[in-house]
Specification:
Blueprint (H helix, E strand, L loop, with lengths): L1 H18 L6 E5 L2 E4 H9 L3 H4 L5 H23 L6 H30 L1 H17 L9 H18 L8 H23 L20 H7 L9
Antiparallel strand pairs: 1-2
Helix pairs in contact: 7-8
Length: about 230
């Protein structure tokens, strides 16, 4: 009878363990404090999109887990030293919590708007790329001085952002620059032939334009990978 009971207990434990979702499984234990797979996945989800794919490798997961372990050790030590019971620390934690929640709400709103405007955003991205890529600008001319001026501006911008950057020669970039300048001229032509009205009051006070990523993506000369 005892053997049967023991066998049933073992079977129950086996079923419970294997019935757990991967997220519930313990990936680390720090002085009795459990770090679950869900905790690790949450940490990966908080990474910028460009790093999320890298975080799928076992080596990167170990590094992220190590950071979680260190964080838990620091919190445990803060608990031992009475830091967590300090009213000022508790106040700071609460304020930080409210800030994180507010930031999360803004992100949720932003993602919701992206979802609602997905069709418009997709059409804009595909059509702009198609229009710029298909146009070879064979009927347009550009002065060499304009190309050199653009190259000088590009070189200056690169050196300001990264003084040690290697700038490719004008000759290597000339064709890319020419295409970029012709694109700009073509777009300016579209604007000059269109009837456009802008309500400046809604834009507020004028501020210096520091660059719009979407626009720069379409006009900045691409890296060619050529040697000087």
């Amino acid at each position: 009878m005892k053997k049967i009971c023991c066998f049933l207990v073992l079977i129950s434990m086996f079923l419970i363990f294997n019935g757990c979702k991967d997220e519930d499984k313990v990936v680390a234990n720090v002085n009795g404090k459990v770090i679950s797979m869900q905790d690790l996945n949450d940490e990966i989800d908080n990474l910028p999109n460009e790093y999320k794919m890298m975080a799928q490798s076992p080596d990167m997961k170990k590094r992220i887990l190590d950071n979680l372990i260190i964080t838990e050790l620091l919190i445990q030590n803060a608990q031992k030293e009475g830091i967590l019971s300090d009213p000022d620390i508790q106040k700071s934690i609460k304020e930080k919590e409210m800030q994180i929640k507010a930031d999360a709400e803004m992100q949720i709103y932003s993602y919701k708007r992206q979802k609602e405007n997905a069709g418009k955003l997709a059409k804009r991205e595909v059509v702009i790329k198609e229009m710029l890529d298909k146009n070879n600008f064979k009927n347009m001319q550009v002065d060499e001085k304009e190309l050199v001026k653009f190259y000088d501006q590009y070189s200056s911008m690169m050196k300001q952002s990264n003084p040690g950057a290697k700038i490719e020669s004008y000759n290597n970039l000339k064709e890319d620059i020419k295409k970029t300048v012709l694109r700009q001229k073509w777009i300016e032509g579209l604007k000059s032939n269109a009837k456009i009205t802008i309500n400046e009051e809604l834009l507020g006070n004028k501020m210096p334009v520091i660059g719009i990523p979407d626009a720069q993506k379409n006009i900045a000369p691409p890296e060619t990978g050529k040697n000087k």
